[in-house]
Amino acid sequence: MSILQVNNLAKHFGGLVAVKDLTLSIKPGEIRGLIGPNGCGKTTTMNMLAGLYKPTRGDVRYHGKSIVKLPPHIRTAQGIMRTFQIPKLFSEMTVEENMMVPALATSTEKTPEFIEALENKATEKLTFCKLDHVSHLLAKQLSGGQRMLLQIARGLMVEGLELFLMDEPFAGINQVIKETIMDAIMEMNDNQGITFLIVSHEMSSVRRLCQTVCVMHEGSLIAEGSMTEVANDPLVIEAYLGGQNAASDS
Amino acid sequence: MDLIILTQYVLSGLVIGVIYALMAVSITFVHGMMKVVNWSMGEYYMMGGYIQYLLITMLIGPSLWFLGIPIAFAIIFVLGVVIQRYMLHPMFVGESERMDEYATIVTITLMILFRNLAIIFGGPYQYSVPDYFPPTDLGPLPISGNRFMALIGTALILGILYYVMKKTWPGRALLGMSQNRIGIQTAGINVRRLDEIAFGIGVGLAAAAGALLAPVFLVWAESGSVPTMKGFEIVVIGGLGSIPGSIIAALLLGLIESLGSVFISSEYRDLFGFVFLILILIFRPNGLFGDRERLA
């Protein structure tokens, strides 16, 4: 059974059709890429999957059950985490507080043992993401790449994380941190079986990480397959290059 | 001018500033958390005053006046939660494009409703609450007992608010929401619940201010108007959404009003604050501690 099944998903903003009749299925343990030209509806799709946007129509099924009416925090509690191209952090809090606040604010248990266990978990996840040396800094003091890593580390604090939705995790990030993020994704996938849906414009990273890639254009899914397959698909080439228009322009 | 007298006016200004601070903090608290301006804040202040009056005259008596403040806070907190849940929450449903206009219409409607309810039930009268404390001295400043208690009470309430926000995890979650609403939702926290708590605390603070200041400024249907006006003035001077900014701006406004009354004329007391506000808007449009908005 698919971990995530999207059926005929559509999103309209007034007269603008951002996503139309999107259908896709992701198997457990997969690292799926979602690519497409700017404005093709990738981020809108991610927002609908995370519960931030209510679809105009269509259904989203997680482990076979519809989650389309669930608010974002319930989806997170069920194991779905989402990161953003511009990291959504608590800028005036320390890195460690960014890790701890969600778990401690929602838990009724506040015993010293529970807090200590949580602190240990936070330290472990920060070490995994190579952020342990900056745990005392405010989030706003981090570099862009470190902020992205912190989003990922915070996602790992979610109990029972199964599906990680990542929106442009490699955008504007130096090569060293990009490698760290890719290593972290592969390790989480291999060792914990976490499923990923990654939106990215970084084709080399998508090629390295994703077995299957979905291509969107003007709100619709136009191709699906391995990176090599979709790269040779005429529809994809036309979507990216403008087809005959591009040829005639040049 | 005698140094002692000048010190008295400075202290008097600071006392007024601290009293103003509580109302300003309640306004900026709601804005900081929910990103909406609550135009009916003065009416929660007014209701806090009425609750205190009723409690003292009918239930607890003048000697237990201090119990009225947490009771007023609690009653208005619950009312705030209900209002947030059923009247303000719909603006966060879906992708509302005109949230500010929605909040403005709802809160101004509530302002009119509560004022008229106060007139219906309380009549067009001004009610006087018995003194909390006899006149006393604050260093070289002779001060009314009511203002002295308002000073102590405000400092205590702001101290508790600081502790809750900085030292407790639910408080930090509220701070997290003020820093990033989307981030807090996708981190697994029920932002709807936080909105209810934030709105409840904000209007509860206004009610606590109303109860605390009931003997200083009488209780009547429009008793919230002046504190609200001062509160908004302070919030703009301090920077919208900044709690420390509101406290410092309140102290500054109190000082300016007090010293302006001495050196120029007490007839223009309110004018000094507005001149200060205009200067701030010219030279620091985002207020003393407001964040500059990034345009590109």
UniProtKB/TrEMBL annotation, chain A:
UniProtKB keywords: ATP-binding, Nucleotide-binding, Transport
Membrane-crossing ranges are none
What the entry lists under CDD domains is as follows: ABC_Mj1267_LivG_branched
Segment forming the signal sequence? none
Recorded GO terms, molecular function? Answer: ATP binding; ATP hydrolysis activity
ABC transporter domain: residues covered: 4-243
Cross-referenced SMART domains: AAA
Which GO cellular component terms are attached?
A: plasma membrane
Its name, as the record gives it, is ABC transporter domain-containing protein
The species this protein was found in: marine metagenome
